[in-house]
Amino acid sequence: MRYVGMQTQISHNNRMSLLLLLAFSAIMLGMVWVFLALVNYFGTYTYDEYGNMVNALDADTVNYYFMNALPWVVGGVGIWFIIAYFTNSSMVKHATGARSITRKENPRVYNIVENLTMACGMDMPQINVIDDPQLNAFASGIDKNSYTVTVTTGLLDLLNDDELAGVIGHELTHIRNRDTRMLIVSIVFVGIVSTIMSLVMQIFQNVLWYGGGTRSRNSNDKNNGLGIIVVLLIGLVCSAIAYVFTLLTRFAISRKREYMADAGGAELCGNPLALASALRKISGDPALANVGRDDIAQLYIIHPQSFSGGVGNWLSSMFSTHPDTAERIRILEQF
After folding, report:
1. Per-residue b or e along 287-317, where b marks 16 or more CB atoms closer than 10 Å to that residue's CB
2. Checking DSSP bridges between strand 137-140 and strand 148-152, what pairing results, if any?
3. Pairing of strands 98-100, 53-55
4. Which of 81-85, 105-109, 262-266 holds the top average pLDDT?
């Protein structure tokens, strides 16, 4: 089996990146409108034919406030996205504790990367190393100035040259296919929504702790406190729904990209069995101490999670961005 369709994969990933941008923008704006609508609904009352006071939605008022909030939401999220997008390299490096290396420091890995890039006619990426005895690797970056291949010291110690070439070929294929750019878009989205959700949760906890309304002496203060709690609850629900979208983006980052990278890495290094052997070794010890963010973890060749079994692992597998490692090995051994 040969690695084919690289241009098709690049085009697909470029379209998917644009689709994620548009979908994320639509979700964010939709959640803002829903938030305003719910606040308006629970804060507006009318009377039915029997004289009973009931909640009502004033759509014109909601649309008015939404249009006023629109430039601020678009501008704020846009600036946030641009900053995060173009500082992704330092962000990933900081999150993983990686450090750059030179040819003089580690000629073995440097020469392997250089030979593989010359073989496929691509520019030499940066090379980073994580000081961790576990085995893993990933590629990151959005352009030739930021493309990076990162490996752990454990990987360098336990893989032979052929196996290491297979892993690096896999990561170089991610760069060639523009997978890394799409993954960075996903990571930025996750970061934005997670931060908003955390802020709302923190404010909600502070309001409950320091004055949710029950400790106030004045009835108006109590009503105001309860009103704030309701607004924050609505905000929390809306941000939680938006967060579900960030989980769904992990499905948009198709598992097929890993199979494509395996095929490309096997062809590039010329030894599918070496890559299969490397995956088998990595799968035995992929967990990393410095990776606490799941959005960063999805970059790795094998997700660095603890496979302890049980309900937690089953739920994690439902939202996994990586296909089953045993299946990847089986396919490679059929080359």
Report:
1. bbebbebbbbbbbbbbbbbeeeeeeeeeeee
2. antiparallel
3. unpaired
4. 105-109
Confirm if 130 and 150 have CB atoms less than 8 A apart: yes
Dihedral sign, CA of 281, 282, 283, 286? Answer: positive
pTM: predicted TM-score of the whole model, two decimal places: 0.74
Pairwise CA distance, residues 231 & 233, whole Å:
5
**What is the Cα–Cα distance from 277 to 76, expressed in whole angstroms?**
47
| Catalytic-residue membership of 114 | no
CA 195/CA 189 separation, integer angstroms: 10
**Residue found by looking up tokens 């994969």 in the block:** 9
**288, 130 Cβ separation under 8 angstroms:** yes
* 3 pLDDT above the threshold of 50: no
User: Pick the catalytic residue: 171, 258, 267, 327?
Assistant: 171
